[in-house]
C-alpha cells in the first residue's frame, strides 16, 4: 500500500502530538506513527494489578496561574487552541532540595526559594541575586546560540560548592543529558520552569494530557496509527523520498518530523552516528512506585517533590554499578492542591542507573536486582522523608532496560543526546527533529518543541 501525506511524524510523544495538532490546524494531511500500543513516549501511563500508574510524570513544570501572559504554558495553550481549564492543573504544595544538614524549600512563588537561599547561605545572598538577574535576562529561545558549560557560568558568580550542587541537583534530574554539568541554555530553561514558574499536575495524571492532545489531533483531521513503527527512511538526492513502515507499507511525505532521537533517526536513514555531536546519550534512571496503605500526609510528609543527595557532593553521572541510590527524586502525587484526595498514597523514587549492566542481566537475576536496588534506594530516601516502608502494599520498579523497550532511545537515555540540535535540522533537507534531541525538555518543553519545529520548518509553504 502506498499513501501520500504532507507530513509524517515519527513518535506519538508530547512533541509529536503537539506538532501534529499545529499542522492539522493549517489543513495539512498528517500521519503520526507510533511503534507501541500506548502513546505518550517518555510521559505515558500503564495499568498494573488494578492500578493506574504514570510513567515519567512527576509534575508538569512551567506552571503559572490562569490569566498569566507571555509564559511557555500560555504560549502552548494559544498555539494549540486549548483553554487553561482544559488542562485541569492542580498546583504543588511545597517541594525541597535536601542535602545533609541543609534544606531549601520552594513553591510556585519564587520568593520562597530566594528567601531560603538567603537564609541557608547568607554569605551568597548578593551573588545569588546576581545569578537570578543573569538567568532572567538570558534568551533561551535563541536557536542560534552555542553550547556553554553551566558550571563555568555559575562558577563565575557563586563560590559555595554546596549551594551550586543544590541548584544543579533538581535541574540535572529534570533535564540534563550531560554528566556533571548542563548546557547553560538548558540550565536556564529548567531553572525558569522549576523555580520561576513551578509544578502542577492533573488529578487524573498524565493520561489526561495525552487524551486531550490525541483527541485534538484526530478531531482536526490528523491520522494516528499505533503499533506502527518505521523500518527505514528511503533517501534519494539529499531528501527522504519515502518511508517504509514495519509492515512493509510505503508512505510518501513532503516532510518528516522525528521525535525518535538524532542517532536513532540517522540509523533509519542507513547512516551510523559518527561525530561527537551525533552520539546518543547515556544518562538513565530507575524508578520505583510504592503504593501505601495511607496518604503520605498521614505519615507527616507534605512535600510534593524532594530532590535529595545524601553525600557531601552531588555526583550526576552514569554509575559504576546498577544504580546509585545516594541522590535522586522523591515524588508524592498526593501532595498537590486537589479538590479531592487521590484514592491511595503513592511515593515514587527516581535514582541514577546504568543501562548496559541492566541490559546484560537475565531473569530471575534481573528481578532480584531490581528489588535489591529498590531497598537500597529506600535506605537513603528515609533520611529525608518519613519512613513509609512499613506502609507499602504494592510496588512496581522499572529500569533503563524498560525505558529502552518502550521509547526506543539508545541506552534508555531519558534526556537524549548530550549535543542538542536547537534548530531541529538534519543532514537531509526535508527531515527535522523535535523532542529531547531538539532541546526543549519536560512536558511543556516537549510540547513547545513540537510546536516550534512545526512553525519553523513545516508551515512555511
The H-level CATH homologous superfamily of the largest domain, spelled out, is FAD/NAD(P)-binding domain
Number of helical segments? 14
Q: What is the overall shape?
A: globular
Q: Mean pLDDT score, rounded? A: 94
Number of domains: 3
Please report the total strand number as a whole number.
18
Q: What composes the largest sheet?
A: 7 strands, mixed
Which consecutive residue ranges, at least 5 long each, have pLDDT under 50?
none
Going by helix content, strand content and strand pairing, the class is alpha/beta
Briefly, what CATH class of the largest domain?
A: Alpha Beta
Protein name: Amine oxidase domain-containing protein
Keywords: Oxidoreductase
Organism: Kolteria novifilia
GO molecular function: oxidoreductase activity
Helix/strand layout:
Blueprint: E1 2-10, H1 14-25, E2 30-33, E3 45-48, E4 51-54, H2 72-80, H3 84-87, E5 89-91, E6 95-99, E7 102-106, H4 110-120, H5 125-137, H6 150-155, H7 161-173, H8 184-197, E8 200-202, H9 206-219, E9 223-225, E10 230-236, E11 239-245, E12 250-258, H10 262-268, E13 284-292, E14 305-309, E15 323-331, E16 345-353, H11 355-359, H12 365-381, E17 392-398, H13 400-407, E18 431-433, H14 442-458
Parallel strand pairs: 1-2, 1-12, 2-9, 6-14, 12-18
Antiparallel strand pairs: 3-4, 5-8, 6-7, 10-11, 11-12, 13-16, 13-17, 14-15, 15-16
Amino acid at each position: 500500500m502506498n499513501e501520500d501525506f504532507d507530513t509524517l511524524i515519527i513518535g506519538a510523544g508530547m512533541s509529536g502530538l503537539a506538532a501534529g495538532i499545529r499542522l492539522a490546524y493549517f489543513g495539512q494531511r498528517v500521519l503520526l506513527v507510533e511503534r507501541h500500543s500506548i502513546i505518550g513516549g517518555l510521559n505515558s501511563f500503564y495499568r498494573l494489578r488494578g492500578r493506574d500508574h504514570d510513567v515519567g510524570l512527576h509534575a508538569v513544570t512551567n506552571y503559572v496561574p490562569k490569566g498569566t501572559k507571555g509564559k511557555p504554558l500560555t504560549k502552548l495553550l494559544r498555539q494549540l487552541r486549548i483553554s487553561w481549564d482544559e488542562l485541569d492543573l492542580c498546583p504543588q504544595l511545597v517541594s525541597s532540595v535536601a542535602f545533609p544538614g541543609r534544606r531549601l524549600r520552594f513553591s510556585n512563588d519564587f520568593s520562597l526559594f530566594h528567601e531560603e537561599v538567603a537564609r541557608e547561605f547568607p554569605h551568597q545572598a548578593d551573588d545569588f541575586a546576581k545569578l537570578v538577574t543573569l538567568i532572567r535576562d538570558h534568551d533561551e529561545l535563541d536557536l542560534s546560540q552555542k553550547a556553554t558549560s553551566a558550571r563555568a557560568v555559575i562558577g563565575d558568580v557563586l563560590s559555595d560548592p554546596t549551594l551550586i550542587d543544590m541548584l544543579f541537583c533538581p535541574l540535572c534530574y529534570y533535564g540534563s543529558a550531560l554528566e556533571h554539568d548542563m548546557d547553560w541554555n538548558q540550565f536556564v530553561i529548567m531553572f525558569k520552569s522549576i523555580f520561576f514558574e513551578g509544578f502542577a499536575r492533573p488529578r487524573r495524571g498524565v493520561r489526561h494530557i495525552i487524551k486531550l492532545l490525541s483527541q485534538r489531533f484526530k478531531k482536526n483531521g490528523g491520522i494516528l496509527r499505533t503499533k506502527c513503527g518505521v523500518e527505514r527512511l528511503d533517501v534519494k538526492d539529499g531528501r527522504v523520498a519515502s518511508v517504509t513502515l514495519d509492515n512493509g507499507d510505503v508512505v510518501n511525505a513532503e516532510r518528516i518530523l522525528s521525535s525518535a532521537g538524532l542517532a536513532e533517526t540517522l540509523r533509519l536513514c542507513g547512516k551510523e552516528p559518527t561525530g561527537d555531536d551525533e552520539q546518543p546519550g547515556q544518562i538513565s534512571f530507575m524508578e520505583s512506585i510504592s503504593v501505601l496503605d495511607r496518604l503520605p500526609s498521614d505519615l507527616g510528609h507534605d512535600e510534593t517533590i524532594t530532590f535529595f543527595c545524601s553525600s557531601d557532593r552531588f555526583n550526576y553521572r552514569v554509575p559504576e554499578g546498577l544504580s546509585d541510590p545516594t541522590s535522586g527524586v522523591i515524588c508524592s502525587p498526593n501532595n498537590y492542591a486537589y479538590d479531592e484526595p487521590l484514592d491511595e498514597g503513592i511515593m515514587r523514587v527516581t535514582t541514577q542507573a546504568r543501562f548496559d549492566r541492566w541490559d546484560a542481566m537475565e531473569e530471575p537475576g534481573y528481578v532480584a536486582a531490581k528489588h535489591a536496588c529498590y531497598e537500597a534506594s529506600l535506605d537513603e530516601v528515609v533520611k529525608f522523608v518519613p519512613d513509609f516502608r512499613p506502609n507499602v502494599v504494592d510496588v512496581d520498579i522499572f529500569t533503563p532496560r524498560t525505558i529502552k523497550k518502550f521509547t526506543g532511545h539508545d541506552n534508555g537515555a531519558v534526556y537524549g543526546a548530550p549535543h542538542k540540535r536547537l534548530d531541529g535540522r538534519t543532514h537531509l533537507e526535508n527531515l527535522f527533529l523535535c523532542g529531547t534531541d531538539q532541546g526543549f525538555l519536560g512536558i511543556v518543553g516537549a510540547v513547545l518543541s513540537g510546536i516550534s519545529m512545526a512553525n519553523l520548518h513545516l508551515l512555511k509553504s
